[in-house]
Amino acid sequence: MKSLFVKDKNFFPIAEPICAAIGNFDGVHLGHQKLVEECKKVSKLNGYKSALLTFYPHPSVFLKKIPNYPLITPLEIKTEIVSRMGLDYLIVVEFNEEVANMTKEEFMQSMKFMNIKACVCGYDFTFARRAEGNIRDLEEEFEFHEVKKYIFDDVRVSSTYIRELLSDGNIHEANRLLGRQFIIRGRVKFGNQDGRLIGYPTANIDYKNYFLPKTGVYFVNAIVNGITYLGMCNIGHNPTFNFSDEIRMEVHIFNFDEDIYNNVIDVIFVERIRDEHKFNSVDELKNQLFKDKAKCLELAGDMNYTK
After folding, report:
1. Is 263 in contact with 187 (CB distance < 8 Å)?
2. Which sign, positive or negative, has the C-alpha torsion 288, 289, 293, 299?
């Protein structure tokens, strides 16, 4: 798969005719995967190259004036997922003031200039200035394929609903609708090192603008230098010691004792264990952490983990 980055509204031409799946694709969930499969099908039938066309940063950065709009899948993770889906191109349009203010006619003309012959979109897709363009406009100008709302086990799959699941701490259901396990990739930064003092050292993760699950303790996998370890993660305010106004994400990696400050690691969320609590003493906290680890290992055994 070849990645192409468009820096302004003057999209550059591609030699081969293209069928493009178009959207934000935050999550690259089962519904998004349906669009990609339809795009590949249309491309094969017509001799087109297949592409996913998306936007960076998320349009809400400009349209809703949210500078650090929280994402289920930032561009780096999205690119890795899409690269495994068998497409020919990933086209990333930089969403800036110029692109945000394009009329629907200008946007469609840029698509034609890029050599997009066919497009695949969700039923509710809108585009261009003030969302004035919709799928009916695309239908008039391109070979158009609409993908209806995707229902999985009687549930409509959408990024909005997956955000709700994450906000509720329902990692299991969110993972089902993503078609993969939710992941946060972040750099290990210096923390207070309180965990080390009580026998549970943690890696304090800079989660940037990821959409965080509900505060609490989670069973996770941590990928460090290409090796997967079992672990548990606390998302919250550290109410027992050194309360933090900002939500912190800290991972205790089982059977691990290496200096990984400044390393980038992947934290893969498997299951939520419990709410975050304020404990009355160090011993009470240590006792609960012992139980949390035992619960994680029990889950790992049920899921046939070997590490």
Report:
1. yes
2. positive
| Number of alpha carbons in the 13 Å side-chain half-sphere of residue 217 | 21
Cβ atoms of 195 and 261 within 8 Å: the answer is: no
pLDDT of residue 217: 98
Question: Of all helices (H) and strands (E), which one includes residue 188?
Answer: strand 183-189
pLDDT tens-digit series, residues 90-137: 999 999 989 999 999 999 999 999 999 999 999 999 999 999 999 999
8 Å CB contact between 167 and 272 = no
Q: State both tokens at 288.
A: 């609960």
List of residues 6+ apart from 171 with CB closer than 8 A: 165, 182, 213, 218, 269, 270, 271, 272
Burial of 69 (0-12, 13-18, 19+ CB in 10 A): middle
Domains and CATH numbers, the chain: 2-153 (3.40.50.620), 182-302 (2.40.30.30)
Regions of the chain where pLDDT drops below 50: 306-307
Looking at residue 7, what is its pLDDT? Answer: 85
Does an H or E element contain 140, and which? helix 135-141
pTM score? 0.93
What secondary structure letter does DSSP report for 47? T
Cβ-based burial of 302 (10 A; exposed 0-12, middle 13-18, buried ≥19):
exposed
Residue 252's nearest CA partner among 286, 215, 293, 287 is 293
- What pLDDT is recorded for position 305? 59
Torsion 96-102-106-112 (CA) sign: positive
Token code pair at residue 112: 């034609």
Distance (Å, rounded) from C-alpha 147 to C-alpha 298?
41
